[in-house]
Amino acid sequence: MNKKIVFLSGILLLLLAPSSCSDDFDDFPQSRSVNEFIWKGLNQYYYWLQDSPDLADNRFSNDTEFLDFLNSYSPPEDLFEHLIVDRQTDRFSVIFSDYTALEQALSGTQKNNGVDYELRYKNGSSTEIFGWVRYILPGSDAASKNIHRGDLFYAVNGIPLTNTNYSSLLSNDTYTLNLADYDNGNITPNGNSVSLTKTAFSENPVHIKKTFTIGSKKIGYLMYNGFYSQYENELNDAFVYFASEGITHLILDLRYNSGGSVNTATRLASMITGQFNNDIFAKQQWNYKLQAVFNSEDLLNRFTTTLGNGNGLQSLNLDKLYVLTSKRTASASELVINGLEPHINVIQIGDATTGKNVGSVTLYDSPDYRKVNINPNHRYAMQPIVLKIANKNNFSDYVNGLQPDVNQVEDLSNLGVLGETSDPLLQTALNYVDTNGRFSIPQPEYRFEHFEDVKSIRPFGTEMYIDVIPTLK
Prior knowledge:
Elements lengths: L5 H11 L4 H4 L9 H12 L17 H9 L4 H8 L10 E3 L2 H8 L2 E4 L2 E7 L7 E8 L15 E5 L2 E2 L5 H5 L3 E10 L2 E12 L1 E4 L3 E9 L2 E8 L7 H14 L3 E5 L6 E2 H11 L7 E6 L14 E3 L17 E6 L6 H9 L4 E6 L7 E3 L2 E2 L16 E3 L1 E6 L15 E2 L16 H12 L14 E4 L10 E2 L8
Parallel strand pairs: 11-12, 12-16, 13-24, 16-17, 17-22
Antiparallel strand pairs: 1-20, 2-9, 3-4, 3-23, 4-5, 5-6, 5-7, 7-8, 10-11, 14-15, 14-21, 18-21, 19-20
Helix pairs in contact: 3-5, 8-9, 9-10
C-alpha cells in the first residue's frame, strides 16, 4: 500500500497543533534505532531542511522503503553526513556517539594540555603548516612547562606538520611539540621541544580583566575566551570590578573566542549596556516548518537584568564599545558585535571575523528531543544547525565575517604580552580611546594564511547554541 509514513503526518500535525511537544510525541517508540532518531530529528529541526532531498516529508512511499533507506547507512555518522547539506554550506552540524562528551564540550570541559594555539600555512607552501601559541591556560599542564605566548612549533613528535596530518598528531593525549624560531618570515627549527599531556580541564573564559587610566579616562579591558553559561558568575564579577573602578570605556577582547551560548552572549551585551532592558538584542530564524508555529516571543533574545541563575547582573550603561577581533572570532562573539550595533557605537579593531551566523541546539533521542525519557539503547545526540540569528534590524548576512573599522592583524614577530601595552592590538585600542582614532596602525611585514586553531579542530569547537527548543504556539 502506497502511503506517506505515519510519523511524517504526525510531525506535521504536531507543528499545527496547540498542545505541547511532549504530549504529541508520546507515541514515538523508545526502541527506535539511532538512524531513525537522526532522520526524524533532522526532518523536524534542521535549518537547511529544504535543501536536503532525503529529508523531504514525501521522500518515502511506505515504512518499508524508509527503513530500508535507514538500514543502508552504517555507522550512524554516515547517515548524518549524508542528510546534512554540503560542508561548504554547513560547516558546523555535529553528532556525538556519547552525549556526555557533547555536554562537556558545551560547558568548556574537555581534554586539554593548556596550550591554546593557531595553525597557519608557511609562506610559499600550500601543504606545510606551523603553530603559534596564543595563550597558556592557568593551572594546566602547559602552565608548568617552558612554553609561552608567541612560541612557534613546526612538528609534533618530530613529524613536520602538514594540512593532512595535523589532526592525527595533535589529537593524541600526550605529544611533544618541536619548537621553532621566527626568522624574517621563515619558521626555523631551533632544537627545543616540550612534552605535554592532556587531562580533563575546564577553562574559565574570563582570562584577563584589568583597567588603564589615560588622562581623565578610565578604561576597562576584558579578554573573554568562551561563552560558557556555568561561568556567568565569573563574567559578572568582572563587570562588578569594572563598575567599582568607575570605568568610562571598555575594550572587549574576543580574538580567541570561538563562541558558545546565545543566552550568555545576550547577558554579556546586557552587562555592557543596561539602558535597553527588554529591548530586542537578537532574532532567531528557523526552518520553514517551525518559524510560523513556534511561540514568536521565544524566538527573540531580549536584553535582560538577570543571569541564568536568576541573580541580578551588573551593567555599565556604556554607549560605546571597542572590540578586538581576529579570523578566529566566531559565533556568539559575532552575535555580540552584530546584536549591539543597532544600539550603541561598536568599534571593531583587528581582522575580519569567521562569519558564523547560524546556531544549533542539542537533540537527544527522546519523545520531545529534550533530555527527558532518553532512549536507553544508545547515547547518541546531535547538535545540528537549526537557526540563523539576526540583530534587531534583521541583519544576519555576514558569512564572510564582520569587517573591522580598524584593520590590524597580529604580527607573529611582535605579539607582546596579553593585557599589557606591549600587545599591539590592545595598544591600538588604547590609542583610539585617547585620540578618537587619529593615529597610524602598525602592520606586520609578513602575513601567514590562516588554517585552523585548537578550538576549530575539536568537535563542536566553534558553535553558537541555544539551551532549549522553543515552545509551540
